[in-house]
Design a protein that fits this description.
One of its GO terms (molecular function) is tRNA (guanine(46)-N7)-methyltransferase activity. Belongs to the class I-like SAM-binding methyltransferase superfamily. TrmB family. This protein is an alpha/beta fold. It is built from 7 helices and 8 strands. The longest helix is centred in the middle third of the chain and has 13 residues. It is globular and about 40 Å long.
Length: 219
C-alpha cells in the first residue's frame, strides 16, 4: 500500500542524516562496517524496515551487532529515524537507507552481510505479480551474493500462501531450511522482536510463520 505523501517529511527527515541515507549509498559498498563505531561487529540487514520497531528493538538487545535497515517509502522510514533519534538509550549500531531492494548488489559487496531479515514483506497475492515477492528466486540469488558463506535469512510472515511459496523457492535454489514454524507465538523465539504490523495482527489471533534459511555452500 502506498501512503499519501506528506510534503513536510521531505525536509524533516534531513534531521536524521547522521544515520539515515536519503540517497542509495553505493559509495558505502564493501565499506559498511566503517560506518559504525565498532566495525568488527557482524552486519545484519533488514529489507522493508517500515517504521523501525523491529530494528530498534534488535539494536537495543544486541549492541554487539551492527544493523542496517532499508525501506523504499520516505514517509515510512522517517518514523524509523524518529524512533532512533528519540530513543532514551543512544543508538550507535543502526544505519538506515531510503532505497529499493532491487539495487542491493550495488549497495552491499559480495559476502559483506552476515544476516538478512525479511519481515512481513508484501505478499503480492496475484499470480501475475509473483516475481515481485522478496522470496522469489531472483531475489534469493541476489541475497546469496551479499551474504557470507555461512550467512542466513530470517523470514517472518502472517501470509500462509507467501510462506508456502517461499519454502518452495528456498528449496529450489538450494537454501538449507531450519526452525520452520507456522505458529511462532505459540513457541516464541528468544531474542525475537515484533514489528509494528506483527504486534497489531497477532493481538487479533493471526498466526505468524517463521523460518531460517542458510546460504547454500557454493561460490
Amino acid at each position: 500500500m502506498r501512503l499519501r505523501k506528506k510534503p513536510w517529511i521531505e525536509e524533516a527527515i534531513k534531521e536524521y542524516k547522521e544515520f539515515l541515507f536519503l540517497d542509495e549509498p553505493k559509495d558505502k559498498r564493501e565499506k559498511w562496517r566503517q560506518c559504525f563505531k565498532k566495525p568488527e561487529n557482524p552486519l545484519h540487514v533488514e529489507f522493508g524496515t517500515g517504521k523501525g520497531k523491529f530494528i530498534l528493538g534488535m539494536a537495543l538487545k544486541n549492541p554487539e551487532i551492527n544493523f542496517v535497515g532499508m525501506e523504499k517509502q520516505q514517509g515510512v522510514i522517517y518514523y524509523a529515524g524518529k524512533k532512533i533519534a528519540e530513543s532514551e538509550t543512544k543508538i550507535e549500531n543502526v544505519r538506515l537507507i531510503l532505497g529499493d531492494v532491487s539495487v542491493i548488489e550495488e549497495i552491499f559487496g559480495k559476502g559483506e552481510v552476515d544476516c538478512i531479515y525479511l519481515n512481513f514483506s508484501d505478499p503480492w497475492p496475484k499470480k501475475r505479480h509473483f516475481k515481485r515477492r522478496l522470496t522469489y528466486r531472483d531475489f534469493l540469488n541476489r541475497y546469496k551474493t551479499i551474504l557470507k558463506k555461512d550467512g542466513r535469512i530470517i523470514f517472518k510472515t502472517d501470509n500462509r500462501g507467501l510462506f508456502d511459496f517461499s519454502i518452495s523457492e528456498f528449496k529450489e535454489t538450494g537454501w538449507n531450511l531450519s526452525d520452520i514454524t507456522y505458529d511462532l507465538h505459540s513457541n516464541p523465539v528468544e531474542g525475537d522482536v515484533e514489528t509494528e504490523y506483527e504486534e497489531k495482527f497477532s493481538r487479533k489471533g493471526n498466526s505468524v510463520c517463521r523460518l531460517i534459511a542458510r546460504r547454500p555452500n557454493e561460490e
